[in-house]
């Protein structure tokens, strides 16, 4: 019979650590001093710059450090000052980011910021706002820019292409995966890496913008984070409502992924539900909004939606079934909220939101924003429904048990012909993901 090994506890690992403690500490402290020969690993000259994230922490001279980091300008380095390795940056070694010409200097460069001649004020960069970098040899130049990357906030010299047929400065930056904070003589840019990293942090960790930037400040200067500055393919012609969003690729779409004949084979199954945790506060400046994609994604267009709400008759609805929150909240007063939640539609089988189908609840779950009888749609100015469309109502298998017994037989998805095996509750899974970011979005402007 095989003998099973004993599962080790935390104390067992600590006993294994104790005899190694002094050795680990010795090697850890040795990393703070340079090797005895202190040679550049490329040219064998005096090596004074070290990059901690490179495997083995190799040493470079100034020239080799600059040449090795032309394609990695956002690495942090440290410099040997005779006593210890001091935190430094690639601006100290004279690194310049060249836009165009494969990273080489433009032959027509004049070292001038003269691509724009508008009278608009430039994105100013004060010397006091630069990241803290020691050393008298570093003097910010006129074309020094604050570059915010996922590795921290960097201050580097950037030179653009000034050839006669060169693109505008903001386009040159965009092609190099920089997003400028302003479009007229920008002095601050964000890398695409930091924008993507923040989206992931916000979605998975619920990180706010302030906390995320505080982390970047700490990564830039752990001793003086307060000195880090605070500077900051789709066809666009004649887009129709919802065209910037994609519908479920697995659901039958006549003319796209299935043929029309025979039509009896295909049935669309949708789930409609509201989420009262996605509240939105009244904006501080309601008239100072910029809409970039109004009605082109999953949310409906604001103007037509407001006109529909103004036209639609809304009565105090009394539940004919059990006492439900969705109905009762419609009669509650919400003075501090611009919207009390959102309502969406998704395919019942795969859980993909339907483009141009999500609306904000203005006060609870109004009839004008949720369930609308077929006969009332035809009388509305802003709603239309195909006359040949047949709607078979149903209730999800979890929600139906909160209704009367007669509702189960009439509306449970188990008894709807042709619907297949679905529970009708997939919206709850979608709301769970969105609720992670709802507290962050609560105070954002409506266009967000």
Uncertain runs are 112-140
| Count of helix runs | 12
Q: Please state the CA-atom Rg, rounded to the nearest Å.
A: 30 Å
Range of strand content: 5-15%
How would you state the average pLDDT, rounded? 76
The percentage helix is 10-25%
* Helix/strand structural class: alpha+beta
Distance from first to last alpha carbon: 65 Å
Strand tally, please?
A: 14
The biggest sheet, with number of strands, parallel, antiparallel or mixed sense and barrel status, is:
5 strands, mixed
Shape, principal axes of CA atoms: extended
For the largest beta sheet, what order do the strands appear in spatially?
Answer: 5-7-6-9-8
Order of helices and strands: HHEEHEEEEEHEEHHEEHHEEEHHHH
Report on the architecture of this protein.
The chain contains twelve helices and 14 strands. It has about 450 residues and is α+β, with helices and mostly antiparallel strands. It has a five-stranded mixed sheet. A hairpin with a 7-residue loop joins strand 8 (about 180) and strand 9 (about 190). The protein is extended. The model is unreliable at about 110-140 (pLDDT under 50).
